[in-house]
Amino acid sequence: MSELKAEYHFKKEEQSIQFPIPGDAAARMMNGHDMHPYNVRFIVEGPLPPDLNLAIMTVLSFHIGRLNPISRAQLCVSLKDFKIGDRHIRERIKQLRRSGHLIGSLAGENGGYYLITTPDDLQEFLTREYQAKIDDMRQTVEAMTKSASQRWGPDSIQKKLL
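Structure (tokenized):
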């Protein structure tokens, strides 16, 4: 059985300081309570589950909320025993999301994947990540449908998308 360790990391004057967090405080943090705005990193000691999806969810279970993401590079390192690349992990995360897992992500230097813990975080993620893409695709479909309708007649194309 794996043992949970937690470390608290923060930068002070270009120095990284870390120290262990007591188990009860770590457990509260993992359950979404007492989240601190600094980086808290949870470490699982021991082997990951043999199933890739379960392994991904295990790693992500230590990255609760958007203030505590794991970078894609760190996730790849955590899953190195599966001998898969970044693209494969991104595809698996997409599949996990499609099966209902609340996995969020942030772009940028301090970005990465995390488990969504609140309705507000979910709404913010969906709006930021998907709404602009949906709107862009809707505009493309409408423009192409209009053009096809003008070329072949209004009844030639049925709007089945969106």
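The longest helix spans residues 119-152. Residues 71 and 110 are 8 Å apart (CA to CA).
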